[in-house]
Amino acid sequence: MDNTDLFICIDHVGLAVPDLDDAIKFHTEVMGWRVLHRERNDEQGVEEAMIGTGTQGAENAQIQLLAPLNENSTIAKFLVKNGPGMQQLAYRVHDVEKVAEALNARGVRTLYPAPKIGTGGSRINFCHPKDTGGVLLELVEPAAHPAH
Ligand code: MC0
Predict the structure, then answer these.
(1) Ligand 1 and 81: CB distance under 6 A
(2) How far is the CA of 136 from the centre of ligand 1 (A)?
(3) Is residue 148 a part of any domain in this protein?
(4) Residue 60 pLDDT class (50, 70, 90 cuts)
(5) Residue 96 lies in a domain
(6) In a domain, 69, yes or no
(7) Is 65 a pocket residue for ligand 1 (Cβ < 6 Å)?
(8) How far is the first Cα of the chain from the last one, in angstroms, to the nearest whole number?
(9) Distance between CA atoms of residues 85 and 65, nearest Å
(10) Pick from 12, 35, 85, 133: most CB atoms within 10 A?
């Protein structure tokens, strides 16, 4: 299996931010992007917004702004340790279980035994940053009919 069987494209780059509204203000008013989607994910402990132009092709990567919902959130811990900045790189995949299995067989640990729910009803897992050269790599299988 080569990587074209595993990955479709870069889905998004996730940025840890202390305050979602402040970050949206910067990325829209200063950088000129638009908010494409916003949601709260209690299981992941985040309030998030997807940022982009809205006119791109479906395979153009978006920017994901991730703010912590509470101090136990992985994003809160990341902010304490590193400050605001790039927290994750997300690869879009056809089949998250198949990709996790293939990567596990190549010695890359995934964080969850089964996929969890991510942005817009997607199915997600993560590769441990210690196995990927220091990058928290998310695997995203988009929902067939994304939730808005
Ligand atoms: C931790 N490390 C990282 C890292 N987080 N390295 C690169 N990028 C990151 N984001 C490194 C630390 O520097 C440390 O290395 C080692 O990993 C252990 O870190 P820790 O500070 O002790 O933290 P842990 O072990 O408690 O948690 C790290 C872990 C966690 C990756 C397991 O962040 C996690 O479960 N992440 C996946 C879930 C997530 O990120 N959810 C928020 C986004 P040293 O060398 O110091 O030992 S939700 C999302 O993304 C959803 C909504 C979506 O897109 O659909």
Answers:
(1) yes
(2) 6
(3) no
(4) confident
(5) yes
(6) yes
(7) no
(8) 34
(9) 10
(10) 12
Domain of residue 88: give its range: 3-141
Average confidence (pLDDT) over 107-127: 98
What's the mean pLDDT in 59-63? Answer: 89
Nearest CA to ligand 1 atom 10: 87
Ligand 1 within 6 A of 57 CB? no
Query: Which tops the pLDDT comparison, 85 or 59?
Result: 85
Mutate to test the pocket of ligand 1, among 13, 15, 44 (most ligand atoms within 8 A of CB): 44
Q: Domain holding 14: CATH number?
A: 3.10.180.10
Q: What is the pLDDT of residue 148?
A: 62
* Atom of ligand 1 minimally distant from the CA of 126: 37
Q: Please tell me the total count of domains within the chain.
A: 1
Q: How far is the CA of 55 from the centre of ligand 1 (A)?
A: 31
Task: Indicate the DSSP class of residue 122.
Answer: -
Structural domain includes residue 147: no
Angstrom distance (rounded) from CA 148 to CA 128? 29
